[in-house]
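Agenda item 2: 6-phosphogluconic acid complex prediction
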Amino acid sequence: MIEFQTKERLEKSLCDRIAEIIRLAIQEKGCAKLLLSGGGTPKELYHKLSALKLDWNKVKIGLVDERFVPIDATHSNQKMISEILLQDSAKEATLIGLVQNIENYTENLETVNKLYEELNEADLVLLGMGADGHTASIFPGDPPSIQCTQDQLPLIRNTNAPSEPKRRISLNKPFISKAKHIFLMITGDHKRQVFIQCDEKKYPIHCFKEEISEVYFTTN
Ligand code: 6PG
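Presented output:
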């Protein structure tokens, strides 16, 4: 776990690290693929990233998870990432959302499972974690969430959150695990405790502990 004095310093360091990963991927393969989390924690990081001078037109961005709400709804991760990250220099990036058909939760899942094949073997997955130890939209005690951690397919599942918006869409563990780098960004002493206790308490984040190569943490 890399601990920072302030959230600002954490964001600066993580921003530089992500830039390095993007540059290297473009240099090696001509494109970079990122899978990003929603929630409140990474918002300022995304703002910082948006100002970086990179070949953003060669960057494809997908979501680690989404709420099944219209893409212009307050709780939409796609909306948040579009409005914060896909601005400034980064507006040239391509964002592939997890809500393609708001009329039908099941059909949407089929569509996104096909669409996200192009985001397989991503260069970076950025995970967050909730106070209950969930990550992506893989929640404690939710059967589809458990399948997300155990089954190879489908790559993406519809899961259930304990609070609104309850209908979620989440990448599964095998999909996330194929990424070259998996980072976790968490803040606050409570989340640190949850992360430390995750194996013992079997919080969903524990399924990813082995795969996460860098944990970015600050108490502030
Ligand atoms: C989401 C997420 C989720 C998030 C945690 C932490 O869409 O909500 O991707 O896994 O990372 O819930 O959220 P906060 O950063 O808001 O605490």
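Discussion summary: The mean pLDDT is 97.
Owner for follow-up: CH.
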